[in-house]
Design brief:
The complex is a heterodimer of chains A (203) and B (123). Chain A has 203 residues and is α/β, with parallel strands linked by helices. Chain A has a single domain (19-201), classed as 3-Layer(aba) Sandwich (Rossmann fold). In chain A, 31% of the residues lie in helices and 26% in strands. In chain A, α1 (33-40) crosses α6. Chain B is built from 5 helices and 3 strands; from the N terminus they run αβαβααβα. Chain B has a 3-stranded antiparallel β-sheet with strand order 2-1-3. Chain B is elongated and about 45 Å long. Chain B has 123 residues and is mostly helical. Chain B has helices spanning 11-17, 47-55, 62-69, 73-85, 109-122; strands at 34-37, 60-61, 89-92. In chain B, α3 (62-69) packs across α4 (73-85). The two termini of chain B are 34 Å apart. Chain B has 2 domains: 11-92, Arc Repressor Mutant, subunit A (Orthogonal Bundle), CATH 1.10.10; 97-123, no CATH class. The chains are: A alpha/beta (203), B mainly alpha (123).
Chain lengths: 203, 123
């Protein structure tokens, strides 16, 4: 992981900043999560971790496990100041199993997620997509273009068993413009979901 | 490469830092709650508290405090709740009101509009 150490010069937020928002980028190792965070972030990505050591807490029932071992999840993050009050934090997190034990503690209230996939290793993201669906967290899927086998969008959708409503995008995680487009697509997807929900709720 | 300090720290050290507590007194800190120092450090203060008061002269998210201190988020929250209880910091919590009408948890339209405008103009 090539995020910076914390001692580097910090870019402080505006004194008026008072509302933090979250978007999570999930995907397998080496798929480009940190790269994407870096290409859109106002700061160089930082890294931290959360550790859960208590028995029987949350969904991680350890009562049957004689030796309590800590669940530790490390993640990178960056941020974008959207206006003088609003700051969007982007978290790059591995989609492995233990990560989801901490999802509610870390990412409750997240706006939505970006599942970053590598066409050559699509199966790596099955679990993440499954968990997001289970949690009811809206998401888009972004294919990081590694110049791999030219699968069609339809083939990728089929391999991921994607709901037809979930946007599938192609991007280059190193590109700021591409990262911006993925974020905008997620926000627009959230808007259309909200509009559809309103229609259903209307009498 | 030297491993990042904190990552493989002896749990005893973390235990000492928080005087044995593993949970904060308050559950209100979110990862992106913005913390603002309301006073300057004073002599005799725990060094982590001093560091927090210094870095929070401008609003700083809990997760950034955690990264700067090189301490896990949960330990950071305990240290922050000490400072919050004594009025040395204030907390600006996320204001999204999740729309829970449907099956999916969706943010409110005002927040979404701000996100889109911000992304289009700032990025």
């Amino acid at each position: 992981m090539d995020s910076v150490t914390a001692s580097e010069a910090r870019t402080p937020l505006a004194a008026t900043a008072d509302n933090g928002l979250k978007i999570v980028i999930v995907g397998g190792f080496g798929v480009g999560k940190t790269t994407m965070v870096r290409s859109v972030s106002d700061i160089r990505p930082l890294n931290t971790e959360e550790t859960m050591t208590q028995a029987g807490e949350g969904t991680d029932d350890r009562s049957a496990v004689p030796n309590k071992t800590a669940t530790t999840v490390a993640f990178d993050f960056g941020r974008i100041s959207l206006d003088e009050h609003t700051v969007l934090y982007l978290f790059g997190a591995p989609g492995q199993e233990r990560f989801w034990f901490l999802w509610d503690r870390l990412f409750a209230g997240t706006l939505g997620a970006i599942v970053l996939v590598d066409d050559r290793r699509l199966a790596d993201s099955w679990y993440a997509i499954d968990r997001l669906e289970h949690h009811g967290t809206p998401f888009v899927v972004a294919r990081n273009d590694f110049g791999g086998p030219p699968y069609t969008a339809a083939e990728v959708r089929k391999a991921l068993d994607l709901d037809p409503n979930v946007p599938l995008l192609t991007c280059d995680a190193r590109s700021r413009a591409a990262g911006k487009q993925v974020l905008i697509s997620l926000a627009e997807h959230l808007q259309s979901l909200a509009a559809a929900q309103q229609e259903t709720a209307a009498p | 490469m030297t491993p990042r300090p904190g990552r493989d720290d002896d749990p005893d050290r973390l235990y000492t830092l928080t005087q044995g507590r593993s949970r904060p007194a308050t559950d209100e800190f979110d990862l992106v709650t913005l913390v603002v120092a309301e006073s300057d450090p004073v002599p005799g203060m725990q060094s982590e508290h001093v560091a927090i008061l210094r870095m929070c002269r401008r609003p700083t998210a809990v997760v950034e405090v955690s990264a700067q201190l090189k301490l896990p988020v949960s330990i950071t929250k305990i240290l922050l709740s000490d400072l919050l209880e004594t009025g040395k910091v204030t907390a600006r919590h996320p204001r999204t009101t999740p729309n829970t009408a449907g099956a999916q948890r969706l943010p409110d339209p005002t927040t979404l509009e701000k996100v889109l405008v911000g992304l289009r103009h700032r990025l």
